[in-house]
Design brief:
Layout lengths: L1 E2 L5 E3 L11 E6 L6 E7 L2 E9 L6 E3 L2 E3 L4 E6 L2 H12 L13 H4 L17 H5 L3 E7 L8 E7 L1 H17 L5 H4 L10 H17 L4 H8 L5 H10 L31 H8 L18
Parallel strand pairs: 2-8
Antiparallel strand pairs: 1-2, 3-4, 4-5, 5-8, 6-7, 9-10
Length: about 290
Amino acid sequence: MVATNQQRICIGPEVPQDSKNPVTMLLPHPSSGFPSRYVIQEGQLYEMQLVDSEGLRSWFIRDTVQSDGSLYIITPIDPLFMCIPILDIVRQRTSESEGLFLGLQDIFESDQYTSLRNLVELDKLDQHLALVCDVRESDSGGGGGSGKRKTFRLDNHRTLTWLKRKVQVLADKFSSIPVLVDSIDYTESLHEICQTEAITQSALRLVSAYLSESWAKQLAAEYQFPELEKLESRIQLPTLLDFGKRSATDMDEDSKPKEIKKPKMSAGQRKLAKASTTGMKPLSSFFAKKSA
């Protein structure tokens, strides 16, 4: 646990003692588009989440008192989750055209979120983008240099393939991560096929939390859960993507599934839920062409 130079208490990955100071910035969240805080350190991207800021709390740090008793968790995030909504916008795809190929500097140029330019400094960013983009190489030109300039355009098929691989990785590791196991309480009572579908469905939900509504729908369309649907239809279990709508009093004691509690929202999520979105600009407006 460390105190940052901005007087925040953070828990995050261990970094070398001689590493450069982290770059903290506000970027649009890939799902909501709302400003969220991220960190770049040693070429890696991290998400900073506020755990709790409610109540009167302070931190004692050596011989000082830090009045802000909040706690921040810094966790790695795959940069492609940040890049997909941006790439989707800047390619300017139409019914007649698949869109534009753009260089890194052009992709991450935004007057509203100038910090996006920092993403260009991430390690192996071009290799990451190649997983979801068509890539073109051309002579960089200028002074007879022999370097190649890469340009990128988001490809829907590549993107869905990558997202499905993310879902599968989560599903494969599901049983080894307690917080994931706890997200679907009644899997042990289901037969094997239902368990597999339940785990995949939960992994799908987790990945979709970092996608726009459009991409979440496209990804969801790639999956079917016939055995779970039969089970839910037969005993009216609450669906895994819609917790708690059915009252337990509507069922006989013998048919009641284990209670599934709605996950508690963090302080930041509660504030966001109460916030008025009137007048807020969509993510696409931050990448609009500049007027002449």
